[in-house]
Every structure is written in structure tokens, then in C-alpha cells.
Write a structure and sequence with these properties.
It contains 6 helices and 16 strands. It is 26% helix and 20% strand. A hairpin with an 8-residue loop joins strand 1 and strand 2. It has a 5-stranded mixed beta sheet with strand order 1-2-5-8-4, with helices on one face. By secondary structure, the chain is of the alpha+beta class.
């Protein structure tokens, strides 16, 4: 039996987990549409795990999170644009942590540390028009500094920010979203997602975001005429992109009936799920795995060969598991999936559309209006 889930946390954000901070940074310059998001753990670090299910992942230091391996706690997780190039953002976070003596101590001097900074990247190369405009170590440093400068329990900016700056979700503009759930026991479970999916977040029949189905309340269906206008616009954008690809000699985009994607087949949705419950490393890995269920509810299809879908899990360990730990853990696992699905919906709703040299990606809000 799982716990009752009475509702969302006060901020409905990852920062409802006490001690967790989030910072965003954007790549500067003309033609840049990319950035980095850093999730900073409290002093002393957090138990961490990861589950990678996409067929084209770009990651760093994920092997260190295997429960069989040495490292017990980590201080930060990096989510970044720029494909594999963008993983360099983690080196800026690593340097920042080293300067503060945060990391795995490897020598007698407290300053002799090696920060372990797991990272995952998404594909957004060229979306602003400049292929080489991508995150580097300076972007990572800017994002971790923004996280450290934020107040405890600060609200997290959502939408077209940080790693979500150039994100695309099945032809719509993607972005960053976050959500939280407060369990009856007082445990908080929260998620932050960067939605950059090859699959669609949108039900082509109704215009409802997939993640809204089964969310506890009946989703609001757009008016038929609004949905039809949105479908026409997405079809026009897709047709223009396919024509451009033919002229350039590039492969055609997937044009399956009803699928609004528009040349965005190289993607990845990356996320962090966190809780203040005291989890072992194996339990945290289970949380990362079951959180993928929330991703599968909100994006269809998911975990494709061209995705690098990756979910990190963090446990700050502030609260012991309640009595009946199996039932309590089941409640946490279920809440992780629910929070991630809702974070994906919020990311898509908060995103701002883009129309530039790298492509046209309208937002859900432009097409369907505010909820």
C-alpha cells in the first residue's frame, strides 16, 4: 500500500527539497540558443543515482553513481545543452566546487578533493543559427554561481532558460519545468525536467498535453477550432522544414500522420528527481528508474535511439523513512513519476516560442493559449 499524496509543495519546485538550489546560465552571443542548468546539493552532498534509457545518451561521471562503486555522495548535477560538446560545462562546476573544498577528499589536506560532477547533455546544436555557440566551462561556472547565490527555497525559473534555452519537444518549443509533491508523512519528492524530446508531448487528436492525462483532474481540452488552427500551423512549419532539408540535401524529417515534430529528431529529455527522505544508493537508483514512468506518460514515443533520456535521483537524507519502509518507499517512487510528468507539462507550458535562423518552434501557449 502506498502513501496518500495530499498535494504539491509550497513552491511546486525542486527547491521544495530543503537544501537543493538551482541555477541557470545561457550561452551569450548572436546565434546562440543554448545553456546550462546546475542542481546544487546542500553542503555535505547528496546520495545520488542515475538511470539512462535513451539510445543516444551524452553523459559524464554516471558510472560513479553505480551503487557498487566508491563515491557515496555528490555535490552537483549538470544538465546542459550543446550535445557532447556541452558536457564541458561540468568542468566549470568542478572547478567552482574545488575552490570551496567540496568533493571526495583524496589527500590529507582538506583542499585535496576531487569533485564528482555527473552531467547529461541534450542536442540543440545550431538551433539559434550558430553551430559553435554551445556551453563551455564558463557557462557551467555561471550556472553554479547562480545556484549558490539563490536564497534557500527560492522559486526556480521555468521555460526557455538554462539547459532548456534551445530545447524542442516534438516540433513545439521545449524548456525547463519543475514540480513537487508533499507526502502525508512530510516527505517531499520533486522533479526538474529539461524537455527536448524526439517524441511528441501533444495528443494530436485533442491538443491536450499527454502529461495532463491521469494527473488527478480532467484535462482542459482546447476548442476544436483552436486545435485545428494549431495543427495547420505545425503542418506548415513541418512542410517548410522538409522543403529546406531537400534543398540542402539533408534527410527528411519523420512525417507520420498526426506527429507534429519538425526536424527535431536528435533530442533528449534529462531530469533530476530529488527527495529529502534518507535513501540508500540502491533505493535512489530505483527512484531514478521509476521516475522514467513519468517521462513515458508525458512524451510519446520515448526512449528512442535518437534520445538520450537520463534521470538523476538525489536524496538529501534529512528525514528517515517512515515506519513500514517498503510502503513508504513505494509512495516516494510513485510520487517521483508523478512529479516528473507534471514537470514536463510545466516546461512545455512555460516555454516561449522561437523563430530564427535555426528554425521556427512555436510554443504551446502561442498555439493553444494559457491554461
Amino acid at each position: 500500500m502506498t502513501e496518500e499524496r495530499p498535494g504539491q509543495g509550497p513552491l511546486d519546485a525542486l527547491t521544495d527539497v530543503a537544501g537543493i538550489r538551482v541555477g541557470h546560465a545561457r550561452v551569450p552571443g548572436e546565434g546562440a540558443l543554448s545553456g546550462t542548468t546546475v542542481v546544487l546539493a546542500p553542503e555535505g552532498g547528496a546520495v545520488a543515482a542515475v538511470d539512462v534509457r535513451g539510445g543516444g545518451p551524452g553523459t559524464r561521471e554516471t558510472d560513479a553513481l553505480d551503487p557498487r562503486n566508491l563515491v557515496q555522495r555528490i555535490d552537483a548535477v549538470v544538465l546542459t545543452g550543446g550535445s557532447a560538446y556541452g558536457l564541458d560545462a561540468a568542468s566549470g562546476v568542478m572547478a567552482w566546487l574545488e575552490e570551496r573544498g567540496r568533493g571526495v577528499q583524496v589527500g590529507p589536506d582538506p583542499s585535496q578533493v576531487v569533485p564528482v560532477v555527473p552531467a547529461a547533455c541534450l542536442f540543440d546544436l545550431g538551433r539559434g543559427g550558430a553551430w559553435r555557440a554551445r556551453p563551455d566551462a564558463s557557462t557551467g561556472r555561471a550556472a553554479v554561481e547562480a545556484a549558490a547565490a539563490s536564497e534557500p527555497g527560492a522559486q526556480v525559473p521555468e521555460g526557455t532558460v538554462g539547459a532548456g534555452t534551445g530545447a524542442v519537444a516534438g516540433g513545439l518549443k521545449g524548456g525547463v519545468g519543475t514540480a513537487s509533491i508533499r507526502l502525508a508523512s512530510g516527505t517531499t519528492v520533486a522533479a526538474l525536467a529539461v524537455v527536448n524530446a524526439a517524441g511528441s508531448v501533444l495528443d494530436p487528436v485533442t491538443g491536450v498535453l499527454y502529461g495532463e492525462y491521469g494527473a488527478g483532474e480532467p484535462p482542459a481540452h482546447p476548442a476544436p477550432e483552436v486545435h485545428e488552427a494549431a495543427r495547420r500551423r505545425l503542418a506548415g512549419i513541418r512542410g517548410a522544414r522538409e522543403a529546406h532539408a531537400k534543398r540542402a540535401g539533408a534527410p527528411e524529417a519523420d512525417t507520420r500522420s498526426g506527429d507534429p515534430r519538425a526536424g527535431s529528431d536528435l533530442n533528449t529529455t534529462i531530469a533530476v528527481v530529488a527527495t529529502d527522505a534518507a535513501l540508500t544508493r540502491a533505493q535512489a537508483q530505483k527512484l531514478a528508474g521509476t521516475a522514467h514512468d513519468g517521462l513515458a506518460r508525458a512524451v510519446r514515443p520515448v526512449h528512442l535511439l535518437t534520445d538520450g533520456d537520463t534521470v538523476f535521483a538525489l536524496s538529501t537524507g534529512r528525514l528517515p523513512l517512515p515506519p513500514e519502509p517498503v510502503a513508504a518507499l513505494n509512495g516516494i517512487l510513485a510520487a517521483g513519476a508523478d512529479a516528473l510528468a507534471r514537470a514536463i507539462v510545466k516546461a512545455v507550458r512555460a516555454a516561449r516560442g522561437v523563430d530564427g535562423p535555426g528554425g521556427t518552434f512555436p510554443s504551446y501557449g502561442e498555439l493553444y493559449g494559457a491554461p
